[in-house]
Specification:
The chain is an alpha+beta fold and 266 residues long. It has a seven-stranded antiparallel sheet, with helices on one face. It is elongated. 16% of the residues are buried. The N terminus is likely disordered.
């Protein structure tokens, strides 16, 4: 932006004075360029200085908070973090943590551990998915010939009444960090991927946001023509939305819609 603006202004001056440019004009142009560049540099320097000050302030705040925490509390936090790591690795369960000192957690008073399940076989995925409430994704009966299962992911919700409950319980406990296991019954996100060795065919289920809720039925993505994968979305009016994506143009929109409908089990 700095160079473009300076060059544009200089070209305008040169154009107006093309046939009667004198030494004084040349000096004026050079001076104006210097002023613009110096002024812009000064602004950039001021912004950089402002960012540095903000960063320094944040570091000081975190350091001050750390100093105000007792050695006993620090030890407790370290032990609980290590404990939740081990619990999630062993069981795959989901835990929500309340942080009394959010400055030690990137400014957030809530964090999530576990709740993400990854699968490399369709059988293992279906075993977990069949225990959940609400709609799930399944291998469509009209899956194009040559496609085989690749991966699946199921993610627990990170929004809901349970977050407020953990926050309230955490504050009431007075502990520097409070941990609670969450028994969730409906997935917030599900993703399935298939491949034929060249193209990747994907299916997704995810919670509808405030913008997405305004659209109903089937609709395409708004990505440029050269950007892949290509998506078709489906909003049936519920709290979840579904999509099908393909890394090529080998399926028509009509085919994608029929396959997507077959992949959603309600």
């Amino acid at each position: 932006m700095i160079c473009n603006y300076s060059c544009s202004l200089l070209m305008k001056i040169i154009g107006e004075e093309h046939y009667r440019m004198k030494a004084a004009t040349k000096v004026a142009i050079a001076t104006l360029s210097s002023i613009l560049l110096l002024g812009s540099s000064a602004n950039l320097a001021a912004e950089a200085q402002s960012v540095k000050k903000a960063q320094a302030s944040a570091v000081k705040k975190t350091a001050a908070t750390a100093k105000s925490i007792s050695a006993e509390e620090k030890k407790f936090i370290e032990k609980e973090i290590q404990r939740v790591k081990e619990l999630t690795q062993e069981s795959g369960d989901m835990y929500v943590l309340y942080h009394k000192y959010p400055q030690l957690n990137s400014g957030f008073d809530i964090s999530y551990w576990g709740g993400v399940h990854e699968f490399t076989t369709y059988e293992d995925y279906l075993k977990k998915a069949s225990t959940l409430k609400g709609s799930i994704l399944q291998q469509p009966a009209n899956l194009p010939k040559g496609y085989k299962f690749l991966t699946a992911v199921i993610e627990a919700p990170i929004e809901g009444k349970f977050v407020d409950e953990v926050r309230a319980e955490g504050k009431k406990s007075g502990k520097p960090i409070y941990m609670k296991k969450i028994d969730w019954k409906e997935a917030a996100t599900i993703r399935l991927k298939y491949t034929n060795g060249e193209d990747t065919l994907g299916f997704s289920k995810y919670a509808v946001d405030s913008v997405g809720s305004k659209k109903k039925g089937f609709f395409n993505d708004k990505l440029p023509a050269h950007v892949f994968p290509k998506y078709v979305f489906w909003n049936d009016g519920g709290k979840y939305e579904y999509s099908i994506s393909l890394t090529s143009l080998n399926l028509s929109r009509k085919q994608k819609i029929e396959i997507l409908k077959a992949a959603v089990k309600k």
